[in-house]
Design brief:
Elements: H1 2-5, H2 9-22, H3 35-68
Amino acid sequence: MARELELHYTTVRDWVRQHKRDGQDAFPGIGHLKPDDGEIRKLRKELMDLEEENDILKKASAYVCHDET
């Protein structure tokens, strides 16, 4: 099959492994994410937002505490 498609055999082997591992979600297409990848992306963004908010609160707390003295 690899020869017919003019691909290296390892490419076809990797496709078969991905399909066995992920089933229908193995190849979601351009611009689409696997369900798990979408969840990971969402959680990473949420983490970044929370870290940014935490940094802002730390700076505000330090500023307020400094003004009280």
